[in-house]
Design brief:
By secondary structure, the protein is of the alpha+beta class. The relative contact order is 0.17. Strand 1 and strand 2 form a beta hairpin. It is flat. Strands 1, 2, 3, 4, 5 and 6 form a six-stranded antiparallel β-sheet that branches.
Length: about 200
């Protein structure tokens, strides 16, 4: 029992970064015990408007990139609001509501959510992740530049993520937060008055 209480106290003293397994968030990466993670953000292509031949060409281009980079990992995030719970709630309210005026308003709300969801349907982010383990500092920049060039040569619109991108990606991944515009390094940081 005493050991369990000690472990709980140790866990309570851990920072959020410790709990997530992050040592440091730098200007362009996340440093973890398993290596440094570099993120390339790929702008998605709307394949619903492409011909079958064009879709096959996009798949082949991605396969070419994947074959050329052994350390590659991929991640896809929704960078949009999820309205499913709200839509289920409105559906139940419409079924339970006896007042036709309220029922009509609820139906309009539900239709509005449907329109918003359709408009945001392509709001996805695709990420290529490179895990650096024992690379020399001098070689990293040229290595990452080659990867970026390879992606662009295959027709992908990409850019390397910066510190703000990384914090936003973590916010979306861990708490589905897609509405915060600027993430703080420390909780309450925006309220600190700095003297100049």
């Amino acid at each position: 029992m005493e050991v369990l209480i000690l472990k709980q106290n140790e866990k309570q003293k851990q920072s959020t970064r410790d709990l997530m397994g992050i040592n440091e968030i730098t200007d362009y990466s996340i440093k973890t015990p398993a290596g440094e993670l570099i993120y390339f953000i790929i702008r998605p292509t709307n394949i619903s408007v492409l011909s079958d031949t064009s879709v096959s060409a996009r798949i082949y281009a991605l396969m070419t990139v994947l074959k050329g980079i052994a350390e590659i990992e991929m991640l896809c995030l929704n960078s949009k609001e999820n309205f499913d719970d709200n839509k289920q709630y409105l559906k139940k309210r419409i079924e339970d509501e006896t007042n036709p005026v309220i029922q009509k308003l609820l139906q309009q709300d539900s239709s509005n959510l449907d329109r918003m969801q359709v408009q945001m349907a392509t709001a996805r982010e695709f990420l290529i992740i490179i895990r650096l383990k024992n690379e020399k500092e001098a070689d990293i920049f040229s290595y990452l530049s080659r990867i970026e060039k390879s992606l662009k040569d295959q027709g992908f619109t990409t850019r390397r993520s910066d510190n703000a991108d990384i914090k936003r990606l973590l916010g979306v991944y861990y708490e589905q937060n897609v509405t915060t515009e600027k993430y703080e390094d420390y909780d309450g940081e925006r309220w600190i008055v700095r003297e100049h």
